[in-house]
Write a structure and sequence with these properties.
The complex is a heterodimer of chains A (about 350) and B (about 100). With about 350 residues, chain A is mainly alpha-helical. Chain A has one domain (about 5-350). Helices cover about 75% and strands about 5% of the residues of chain A. Chain A has helices at about 15-35, 40-50, 55-80, 85-110, 115-145, 160, 180-200, 205-215, 220-240, 250-270, 275-300, 305-350; strands at about 5, 15, 170, 175-180. In chain A, strand 1 (about 5) and strand 2 form a beta hairpin. The longest helix of chain A is centred in the C-terminal third of the chain and has 46 residues, at about 305-350. Chain B has a domain at about 45-90. Chain B has helices at about 1-25, 50-60, 65-90. In chain B, helix 2 packs across helix 3 (about 65-90). Chain B is flat, with a radius of gyration of 26 Å. Classes of the chains: A mainly alpha (about 350), B mainly alpha (about 100).
Chain lengths: ~350, ~100
């Protein structure tokens, strides 16, 4: 076996392990930057690296829970976690994750799991990118009127949902939200179902749901989302391992890259602000969509399979490299500027 | 007032319809064939040694213990590696406690 190949003890597949570190690092940078677990990149990424789709989901959930534990600890120190909202969300999410995992096993028995999951992924990705770009357009319209990027409001579906007053009503102090308890329960169940089925549980669905459907401020949404992901990720890991679909060795290799990547991504949020974040997020979602569509075509057309799979791999890893480079460069530039200002300030004080 | 909501509803429905039409144009996206995996999967322990062999045996013989070990290892490793990375980054002299520049 070559030095760059590694045999996975459970799934039995041979994997290009530097690809796992790169994917882990990339998902750490991107996840830390957007405030999410990064499963939307990891599941297709692991699948492209050679894992069967159900193993890709289980492994993804395992590395995601490790990342969210570290991030939640840091967010808790900032006071960004609404524990009441987070705990209510956990109950609904766990029920949804369990149903999602059972659905995956049923589809696997039919031999349809890959195609159905990829199909659902594509619909979800299109809907998310549409929501993000609609939000940007709406915010930009208001930005032209207000000339203030920070106060410009985008999509506000939560205002209509807050009018549904089915008892018991509950006040989430940190998030500043007063609504029916059934709203977060129902939303979290749907999030759990999608999370368990597609192997995503981070910001891709939780963050937009918290912001657009519940009405949380962005920083509280990020912290509370990670608090929820921590539990749903661990539960997801447990239930997927019970069903025999987690590759611990791969998850541990990925955490090695992700632990350092997450630091860069989190610090970069200090220096990159405004519409650039949303544009980057929307474009990356489109990139993932194209890559998965190509993979699906490859399964259907064996003659062109090699070419389509190669293009799909190039797109998914190209996307990770591009976003990582952009975020890392911006982080280094910002950090250098901050350190330079600090030095100048110290020198002025000495003088 | 209601006509505005109706217009928005129609616009949203049109978008969903366009999306569905686009996806239905490619039936291959829905029904691609793939190899089915058995429901009760068993790890092949041939050629494994040390920790890998121990974990693979645990996976094959006691799935509940294997799941417990996994959800214990993952957060512990995540916490340790995260703390190590945090230690190195905090040496750079950057302000890591506030997001304001």
């Amino acid at each position: 076996m070559e030095w760059y190949s590694m045999h996975m003890p459970i799934s039995g597949v041979t994997i290009f392990w530097p690809g796992l570190i790169l994917l882990g690092f990339g998902v750490g940078v991107i996840g830390g930057f957007f405030g999410m677990g990064g499963g939307w990149l990891v599941t297709p990424g692991l699948n492209i690296l050679g894992f069967p789709i159900s193993f890709a989901i289980g492994t993804d959930l395992a590395q995601m829970s490790a990342n969210s534990i570290v991030s939640t600890m840091r967010h808790a120190k900032f006071g960004n976690v609404d524990y009441k909202l987070g705990t209510i969300m956990i109950i609904g999410t766990l029920a949804g994750v369990e149903m999602g995992a059972r659905l995956v096993l049923y589809l696997e028995m039919l031999g349809l799991v890959g195609s159905v999951i990829r199909y659902c992924y594509m619909v979800l990705l299109v809907l998310i990118s549409w929501t993000v770009f609609t939000d940007i357009a709406k915010q930009k319209k208001q930005f032209i009127v207000d000339a203030n990027e920070e106060t410009a409001v985008g999509i506000d579906w939560y205002k209509r949902l807050h009018r549904i007053k089915i008892p018991p009503m509950v006040h989430f102090k940190t998030a500043g939200v007063y609504c029916s308890v059934w709203l977060p329960v129902l939303i979290s169940f749907l999030i759990g179902l999608v999370s368990g089925t597609l192997g995503i549980g981070g910001g891709l669905i939780v963050l937009p749901a918290f912001i657009y459907l519940i009405g949380c401020p962005t920083h509280v949404a990020v912290g509370t989302s990670l608090y929820g992901v921590m539990f749903s990720g661990l539960y997801g890991t447990f239930t997927y391992t019970m069903k025999g679909r987690t590759e611990l060795a791969a998850a541990l290799i990925m955490i090695l890259g992700a632990a350092f990547g997450a630091q860069i991504g989190t610090i970069a949020t200090k220096y990159i602000k405004g519409f650039a974040i949303k544009y980057a997020f929307g474009l990356s979602v489109i990139g993932v969509f194209v890559s998965i569509a190509l993979k699906q075509f490859a399964d259907k057309f064996p003659v062109r399979q090699h070419m389509l799979l190669s293009i799909s791999t190039v797109i998914i890893f190209g996307l990770v490299i591009l976003l990582c480079t952009y975020i890392t460069v911006k982080m280094i530039q910002g950090a250098r500027k901050e350190l330079k200002e600090k030095r100048t300030k110290t020198m002025t004080q000495k003088m | 007032m209601y006509s505005i909501y109706l217009k928005r509803l129609l616009a949203a429905l049109t978008r969903v319809l366009v999306l569905l039409c686009l996806l239905c144009c490619f039936p291959g996206l829905i029904f691609a064939e793939e190899k089915a995996l058995p429901l009760h999967y068993t790890a092949n322990t041939q050629g494994l040694s040390g920790v890998e062999l121990w974990y693979a045996n645990l996976y094959n013989n006691n799935r509940f213990s294997c799941a417990l070990v996994t959800i214990l290892i993952i957060p512990v490793v995540g916490f340790i590696l995260g703390s190590v990375a945090d230690f190195f980054i905090s040496r750079t002299g950057l302000d890591l406690k506030s997001r304001a520049k």
